[in-house]
Design brief:
Pfam families: AAA_lid_14 (PF25601), HTH_8 (PF02954), Response_reg (PF00072), Sigma54_activat (PF00158). This is Type IV fimbriae expression regulatory protein PilR. One of its GO terms (molecular function) is ATP binding. Helices cover 48% and strands 15% of the residues. The protein is of the alpha/beta class. The protein has a 5-stranded parallel beta sheet with strand order 2-1-3-6-7, with helices on both faces.
């Protein structure tokens, strides 16, 4: 149940709104003038204020300004019989959620009220999520409040202080490098360097030199001696990502380095002592690789002294919104759009999707949504089709609609897109029997979005 303030100097309208909003389950307080409403706001916080624009000699904009000054997260809905573009723009600039013109349809009012209250609830949830982004749900930059992540944090806390070799496993995109960095930052080597190398990204002929270094003249192009990554990471941590990609010949030398704590540069005659902690990572099943002869068994056991498995996103759904909020804050700040939030529908879409690309895919989805969103509230229509839950079979007829057709010289892309949009709107309205809220759900867009599209294409939208 939400707490609402209704302000209207017309008694019949005020009482109608009060009864209507109480009937749908809200607690409602009514005032007839701006002064009384502003006084009420001094002592009471409301989830939503519904105010007329003209209140006798005073303006509902006063109520709007006072509400936002005292309670920034309170939503305000303006209603008026004297609509003008100037008034609408001013109200929205002052922070109004929306602007309805009398006479309005009851269903349309209720939809807007519920949407405003949904946004208010989302703001509360976002505040809670931001609190959870503190130390309780964070370990050296890794976010998570799920049982699986709390267990991982506990293991990291125990393992970090030692110099024991650690093998981090998990699917692509789960954040294995973040785990390696956490081990480094929380351990006794935080003051030393953290050096990361992707073993699969270095050509096979160069990887030995990259890891162990080389002497001048060791091979063509070696015009000077060069220390390897083991030496560069001295006193710190060397993170060997995609360790399963390491050639067998180099695996032998890595095993020796781990066992004897020395490396021999390519072309060198003497061993060089090393002081480095090794953290390796892979998304491969190394036990299977050992069985099939692609990875040395002795090296596997030497690396897997401590094994840490990072769970995929589908096994830690409690963390999805926490991670999404973290990325939303970062990208919204980067694009100069603070105050953005996910709608309920967007949250549901994120929670229902498995994210096969894990945290990396979730980050990309949020960045795309921030970029494509027109307003402060992110809706599912800014997500890729897979995240929205759109059926791939539905898109098949349209994906190849122009296949085999030559592009005319006078082709008008916008006109063609408008025609497609019009057709889909007509089909949705037909299936929903003219009810715009239902049609919007069928199309995966918001009520405000469908209303805008209908007005843009000058279509009759039927009921609300």
């Amino acid at each position: 149940m939400a707490h609402l303030l209704v302000v209207d100097d017309e008694r019949s309208m005020r009482e109608m709104l009060e009864i209507l909003l109480q009937k749908v389950g809200h607690s409602v307080v009514a005032e007839e003038d701006a002064g009384a409403a502003c006084e009420r706001l001094e002592h009471e916080e409301f989830d939503l204020v519904v105010t007329d624009l003209r209140l006798g000699q005073r303006s509902g904009l006063e109520v709007l300004e006072r509400a936002k000054a005292l309670h920034p997260h309170t939503e305000v809905l303006m209603i008026t019989a004297f609509a003008s573009a100037e008034n609408a723009v001013q109200a929205m600039k002052l922070g109004a959620y929306d602007y309805l013109t009398k006479p309005f349809k009851i269903d349309e009012l209720l939809v807007v009220v519920e949407k405003a209250l949904e946004k208010r609830a989302l703001v509360r949830e976002n505040v809670q999520l931001r609190r959870q982004l503190g130390d309780r749900a964070r370990f050296a930059g890794i976010l998570g409040k799920s049982a699986a992540m709390r267990e991982l944090f506990a293991l990291l806390d125990k393992v970090a202080p030692s110099r024991t070799t650690v093998l981090v496993t998990g699917e692509s995109g789960v954040g294995k490098e973040l785990v390696a960095r956490a081990l480094h930052e929380k351990g006794g080597r935080a003051a030393g360097p953290f050096v990361a190398v992707n073993c699969g990204a270095i050509p096979e002929g160069l990887i030995e030199s990259e890891l162990f270094g080389h002497e001048k003249g060791a091979f063509t192009g070696a015009v000077a001696a060069k220390p390897g990554l083991f030496s560069e990471a001295s006193g710190g941590t060397l993170f060997l990502d995609e360790i399963g990609e390491l050639p067998l010949a180099v695996q032998v030398k890595l095993l020796r380095a781990l066992q004897q704590r020395v490396v021999r540069p390519v072309g060198g005659l003497r061993d060089v002592e090393i002081d480095v902690r090794i953290v390796a990572a892979t998304n491969r099943d190394l036990e299977q690789e050992v069985r099939e002869g692609r990875f040395r068994e002795d090296l596997y056991y030497r690396l897997n002294v401590i094994g840490l498995k990072v769970p995929p996103v589908r096994e830690r759904r409690e963390d999805v919104l926490l991670l999404a909020e973290h990325f939303l804050q970062a990208f919204a700040k980067e694009q100069g759009r603070p105050g953005m939030a996910f709608s309920r529908a967007a949250q549901r879409a994120l929670l229902d999707y498995d994210f096969p690309g894990n945290v990396r895919e979730l980050e990309n989805v949020v960045e795309r949504a921030v970029t494509l969103s027109d307003g402060d509230e992110i809706e599912p229509d800014t997500f890729p089709a897979a995240v929205r839950g759109a059926s791939p079979t539905f898109a098949v007829p349209y994906a190849g609609a122009l296949s085999g057709v030559d592009l005319p010289d006078d082709f008008d892309l916008q006109a063609w897109l408008d025609a497609c949009e019009r057709e889909m709107l007509e089909k949705a309205l037909e299936r929903s029997r003219g009810v715009k809220t239902e049609a919007a759900k069928l199309l995966g867009i918001t009520f405000r979005s469908i209303r805008y599209r209908l007005e843009k294409l000058r279509m009759e939208g039927g009921g609300s």
